[in-house]
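re: ur question from earlier - yeah i can do the single chain one, its not a big deal. heres the input i used so u can compare w yours
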Amino acid sequence: MESNQTEKQQDLKRQAIILASLLHDIGKFVQRAQENPRKQKHTWWGRKWFERNLAEKIRKIFGKLTDEIGSMINSHHEGVEYIFLADALSAGMERIDLDMEEEGDFSNERLISVFSRISISDKPKVNKYYQLIPLGEGGNTFKELFPINDSKCSWREYKKLLDKFNTEIKNLEFTSAEQVIKRLYFLLWKYTWCIPSAVYRSEPDISLFDHLKTTAAIATCLYDYEKYGREKANIDTTAFLIVGGDISGIQSYIFDVLTQQGKVAKRLRARSFFIQLISHIASHKVLHAFNLSLCNEIISAGGNFYILLPNLKNAKGELNRIQKEFDYFTLEEMSGEVSVNLGYMEISGRDLFNFSKVLENLKKKVLYSKYQPHKSLLVEDGKWVEDKFVRKKVIRSEEKICSGCRKDSIYEREVWAKEESFCKRCCEDVEVGKLLVESKYIIFSKTFSEKYRIFDYSFGLEKTLQKNNAYLILTLNNADNVTEGDGFKYINNYVPTDKNGVLTFEDIAKKSCGEKILGYFKADVDNMGLIITHGFLPQFHCDENGEDCQICKNKFNIKNIKPSISRLSSFSRMLNTFFTGFLQAELKENYSNFYTVFSGGDDMFIVGPWNEIIDFSVKIRKLFKKFCADNPDITFSAGISLFKHYEPISFCAREVENALKNSKKIFDEKDKITIFNKTMSWDDLENIVLTEAKRIIENWLKKQPPLISRNLIYNFRKYGEMYENYLEKQDIKSLKFIPLLVYDVNRNLNKPEQEEIKKWIMETISNFQKSQNKKLLFLRVIMEYVLIYTGGGKNGENM
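and the output i got, formated as tokens:
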């Protein structure tokens, strides 16, 4: 009994250190909100804030440790070594001097966009800055995510932000130490994402939130490393394990949906969501195995996660056990279609200074695991375990095969009466797809208390708050109500609906202008690997030691940039927020006919009416540039493919993926889009293809009667195709398009009102051998657009 009590006290002490680490620099927030900020140092302001706003709320949980937490906040530069060292390591430094932290014009400096600081070329970059606005308060525009030119703010802006923060703190209630940390984590994210961590040592591009979070993660590891009998860690001690997780088989699993069976829209979205949750719950299981908070989840986005663990004696064995659990679930429950692959490596505190290098090496470990899926079950003592290759689920002759996946038998009819032609998993797909549209909360449980199982955990989707046995309750796509659950989560789950529920792909296609077809749009950020490994510390090897000279540092705007753990955390979090939070709001507000297949991390896949998808692609690329501080080194490429609504999803997905790959074929010429099987720059799509196509439609075809026939448009498309063939194959025979086109023009465009068309065509074919003649280069594509736009009926329906 006494031993249990001691253990509880030790755990509470540990939670107190985590909390103090998470709040260690809260005084910077408070200090900057004062008219006379230099009255006291930020450590003093931090303790005062804690005593006034939080201490009494948590005293019933932490008891006497409450006052110790305040003391640790006040003396984190000299008192608690875990926090002192963690603070420095998070910032990419060996130590931090308190007096230095009080330097600079800290009440008037805005946070520089982390995207302003990235450089993988010699193209000039310009700093842009964030406004002091809580995350989500910008409404559907998410205006707070888009940096501005003004570098200065005032203490009054900080005060306004702090007042809102304090109001939400007052509304928080806690029942456990873990809950205190969870709820403060999300509240700090909401309010301190836009605050610079420090302004004294370099231009401030790391948010206070990412510094607080990573400091708490590092301090926890240092405490555990010493507590569990290794040694007292210093900067060169390999006190950490960095763990990477990757979900493989995502695309084949998501798109393995038989189109002709209906309910595709619901099932597709549910499968994409399910993959996201596999990643999140896998990450949670690793955290829980080591009794760690969300702070230690350094990065989580796009089916990947990276977690910082203490390098304990049993840590690797525990990770191997967890890997086996992941393998069992994905092999037995998902027939091995998906795998969760872990990789890990030991690192020291000094390694955290170049976290880019850590991630580069870790990805090799994860890749090795990825190429050996389910190895923990399929191989034993270097030999194959043959019976594991045999599928245990046998479909008996009297059973019907699921019409949704054709892999399992139809589930018990009395349980799934509404979907009698589907197996259990396909039925769950339909149900989750419906719930995603209606639900406000997602609930995570360590037991099977919720309806949908992943590993030995479960999750539920609810319209109203249900606490049950949840370890985490998150509000979906709404940071306004943080106090209702534990926090918030942005997921791009937008799907178009009407009074009957989610629109089918056929319904969406009917929203198109002209031909009733769908546009499939897929895009991802260019050169992500290069950005991660080199973008935060460019090396132009100017001097004999391979170091950057001061001239280069000034020229490329990279003063004192280090690829620290906090900087990489900030970069990943912000990028993911664009592809989840902002994109969700943008679709809901301006593109109500679009269907999100997936979006997060650094990519997106969206389906919609073909003409709206093309216009959207141009707009979202501009918004992404603005979001990334107009940094010319951060771009994305895309592919668009058009199909009838009944085409198999897997086929459409492969084709649009090929279009995306074509946009990225040339390394130094990315930032492209491929559409109608033609790769082009974004400017050419907007200023040549769309401008000319829409002019033809408006000025020629919408006239009554039309000034030009569709047959002539078909001919122009054929001539454009012949010109492309000439350019690609140098086939001289293809040049006969010129006399053919001239003949067509003279024969069919001889009325006075057609003079403008004739002039346009003749200008288009003039100087055909010059590469800058882009109207001719894209003639086929322009006419392709026009034909589809006008192909739904007389002159095109919905024109």
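The two ends are 78 Å apart (CA to CA). not sure if urs matches, ping me
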